[in-house]
C-alpha cells in the first residue's frame, strides 16, 4: 500500500487529505512537465491547475474529478499553483492555494465550491495579509478555523521578517544562526475568506531546552509543508525540513502553539521535496505523501499513502507497538 502511486495517469504531489461525508478527498498539486531546469527557487514547479481525487477508503478505486480550478481563472495569479488545501464549513467547501502574483510574490488565495470535489470559484484577490506558500487549513472541534502557511527559500518566507516583502532577502534563503524562521498561523473569519488578524509565528521549541529551534538545526527546523491534525486532545503540527528531507512534527496544547518538537515521521523519500498530510478514516490514521518514483524527476511527483500509528506516549510511529 505504501509503495504504489495513488494515480498514474497524471503527476500529483503535496497531497492534502480530508474526510468529507465519510469519503476521503485528496487535494494535490498537479505536476507538469517543463523545460525549466531545477533551481532553489523551485521555478521548475510550474503548475497551472488543480485536480481533486477521492476514494471510499484507502485501497479502493480512486476517482479523479478532473480540473477544479485553473490558473487562467484566478484574476490575481501569475504563475505556479503550488500545494493547496481544502476545508468545509457550514456546507461550503474552500480551496486554499498559493501562487505567485503578477509581481512574482507568493500570496494565498481562496476559491469556494458547493461540493468537496469542486469546481471552485476563486475570489478576485488573494487573502489580505497572506504571503508565502503551502496553506493548510484546520477547523477545530469548536468550529474555529485556522490557516497555517509558510515556506523558506523559493517559498519566500525569509522575505517577510519585517512585515513587508523584502526582495533582497530572497537570495539569502535563510540565516545560518539564530532562531529558525517560523511557520505562520492566522485565524480565519467565519466566512473563511479572510484573516481575523495578522498572521503570527508558530513557535517550535526544543523538548529539553524549551528554547526555539536554531536556524542551523536543519534536521529539525521548519522549512515548508505545514499540516495540522488533532489526536487525543493534542495538536500535532507537522512539516518538511526541506534540505534535509524529513517529515517532522511538534505537539502542542493549542492550535496556535507553542509546540514542542516531537520527532520524525518519515525519512527522506526519492526526490528533493517531501510533503504530506495526516487524516483519520474509520478509526485508522493515514499519511499521504509523495515521491518521484514514477518519473525520477524532482518536479514530476506521485502521491502515495501509508498507515501511521501512535505509541503509548502519543508519538507518531510507522509500525504499531
Ligand atoms: O509543489 C511545489 C512545492 O514543492 C510545494 O509548495 C512544497 O511544499 C514542495 O512540495
TrEMBL record:
Q: What InterPro entries is this protein classified in?
A: Glyco_hydro_43, Glyco_hydro_beta-prop_sf, Glycosyl_Hydrlase_43_Enz
Which residues does this entry assign to the site Important for catalytic activity, responsible for pKa modulation of the active site Glu and correct orientation of both the proton donor and substrate?
134
GO BP annotations of the record are: carbohydrate metabolic process
> Which stretches are annotated as coiled coil?
none
Gene Ontology molecular-function annotations: hydrolase activity, hydrolyzing O-glycosyl compounds
Q: Which UniProt keywords apply?
A: Carbohydrate metabolism, Glycosidase, Hydrolase
Family membership noted in the UniProt record: Belongs to the glycosyl hydrolase 43 family.
Name of this chain's protein: Arabinanase/levansucrase/invertase
Query: What species is given as this protein's source?
Result: Mollisia scopiformis
Lineage runs: Eukaryota, Fungi, Dikarya, Ascomycota, Pezizomycotina
Amino acid at each position: 500500500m505504501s509503495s504504489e502511486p495513488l494515480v498514474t495517469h497524471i503527476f500529483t504531489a503535496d497531497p492534502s487529505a480530508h474526510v468529507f461525508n465519510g469519503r476521503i478527498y485528496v487535494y494535490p498539486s498537479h505536476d507538469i512537465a517543463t523545460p525549466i531546469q531545477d533551481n532553489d527557487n523551485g521555478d521548475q514547479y510550474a503548475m497551472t491547475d488543480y485536480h481533486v481525487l477521492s476514494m471510499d477508503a484507502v485501497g479502493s478505486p480512486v476517482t479523479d474529478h478532473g480540473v477544479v480550478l485553473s490558473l487562467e481563472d484566478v484574476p490575481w495569479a501569475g504563475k505556479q499553483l503550488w500545494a493547496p488545501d481544502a476545508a468545509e464549513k457550514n456546507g461550503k467547501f474552500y480551496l486554499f492555494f498559493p501562487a505567485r502574483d503578477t509581481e512574482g510574490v507568493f500570496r494565498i488565495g481562496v476559491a469556494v465550491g458547493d461540493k468537496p470535489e469542486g469546481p471552485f470559484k476563486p475570489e478576485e484577490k488573494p487573502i489580505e495579509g497572506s504571503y508565502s506558500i503551502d496553506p493548510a487549513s484546520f477547523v477545530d472541534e469548536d468550529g474555529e478555523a485556522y490557516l497555517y502557511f509558510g515556506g523558506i527559500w523559493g517559498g519566500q518566507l525569509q522575505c517577510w521578517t519585517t512585515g513587508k516583502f523584502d526582495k533582497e532577502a530572497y537570495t539569502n534563503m535563510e540565516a545560518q544562526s539564530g532562531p529558525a524562521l517560523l511557520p505562520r498561523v492566522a485565524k480565519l473569519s467565519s466566512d473563511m475568506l479572510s484573516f481575523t488578524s495578522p498572521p503570527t509565528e508558530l513557535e517550535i521549541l526544543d523538548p529539553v531546552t524549551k528554547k526555539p529551534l536554531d536556524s542551523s538545526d536543519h534536521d529539525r527546523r521548519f522549512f515548508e509543508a505545514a499540516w495540522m491534525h488533532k489526536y487525543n486532545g493534542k495538536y500535532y503540527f507537522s512539516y518538511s525540513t526541506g534540505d534535509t528531507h524529513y517529515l517532522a512534527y511538534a505537539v502542542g496544547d493549542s492550535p496556535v502553539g507553542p509546540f514542542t518538537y516531537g520527532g520524525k515521521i518519515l525519512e527522506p523519500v526519492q526526490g528533493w521535496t517531501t510533503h504530506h498530510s495526516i487524516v483519520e478514516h474509520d478509526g485508522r490514521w493515514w499519511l499521504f505523501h509523495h515521491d518521484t518514483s514514477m518519473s525520477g524527476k524532482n518536479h514530476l511527483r506521485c502521491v502515495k499513502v501509508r498507515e501511521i500509528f501512535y505509541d503509548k506516549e502519543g508519538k507518531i510511529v510507522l509500525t504499531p507497538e
